[in-house]
Amino acid sequence: MTDPQTMDGVARELRLDTGEMLVLTLLQQVMLGRDVIAERTPQVQQRKTVVRDRFADAAVQGHWSRSADLPDWARAAGAAIAAQAPSRQRAPIEDAVPDLAARITRRSRALLILIELYSFEPWPDGVAWNVRSRRRALVDIAAHLPGLQPGDLDAVTAKFTAVLRAVRRKQIRWGRVAAASVVGVGLGVGTAGAATPLIGAALGGAIGLSGAAATSAGLAALGGGSIAAGGFGVAGGAALLTGLGAITGAGAGAAGSRLTGWSAGKVVVDAVKLDVVTRLVVLDAEGDDEKARRVVEGLQVRLDEVSTRISALADQIRRLRADNAALTAENQELRKRLEAEHDDARIAGAALQVVIERLPAAV
């Protein structure tokens, strides 16, 4: 059994289980469907419809059509949703909300889902949520989650806004975040678009795809592929507690491998979410100071990894610059890659440092 007071244990406790992922997927579909209807610009509505339909297809394949794998309480809703084309799924989706959302009775678990919904950013570049539709959807959804308290949505909004402002005050070229991100965070409404990349393409890119293939694969994974394979949905940036993958192992010769699987954008997004989760879920809902301390310790380990990478990259860049007169075209390209990776690592490190300094457990 995993010790809940270790970093791995904390990360496991912050993950969404299969049932919670079902509820999250349904509520994400509510937000998508309502936003498509609220959109008044035909060209934008068309782009949003494509995203909604791809997400719906992925959700059907990963969840709703797999009746034998669904818990009893989700089978009727799943069958009703799977029986309809994406353009006709709104009614069965909305009808399923009261019953499925009612399953999330613990405040800490309801907060995790609300945080994921608040940070849900499925749209491509140049497309944004309808502000009023998004807010109304979040208010309605919060009312259906019995574990939440009346002020929880406002608290989530305030915490996200505060940490993003703190991160943005760092003297970093944050414009690089969107280009380098692996997942998006839906904070463009209140934070001037700190990180709003296309989540589908980003997830697909993380597994080696690009373009339309990346979008399709990314949305498929988002729609439940990991659950179908027996895995767990991850919430609140919990993966930051257990490792940064190839962040310290991506060699200079690995073209395009900047923070492989853990781009600057992903570290920023997950650190921001983990800040909110630690404050509202770990400290407020659970009152677990020891768990919060483990979160800070985990982030410090990640910051140490990033700092090591920054130092190594800086050394490589200095050596290349010292030999600038003899640079070949290949070495010039290598230097550009190293400088880009160095920038990404600095962005990731800055976000981690901000969150560590903000969390009360750091004191």
From TrEMBL:
Q: Does the keyword Coiled coil apply?
A: yes
Which portions of this protein are annotated as coiled-coil regions?
296-344
* Keywords tagged on the record: Coiled coil
This chain belongs to the protein called Uncharacterized protein
Organism equals Pseudonocardia oceani
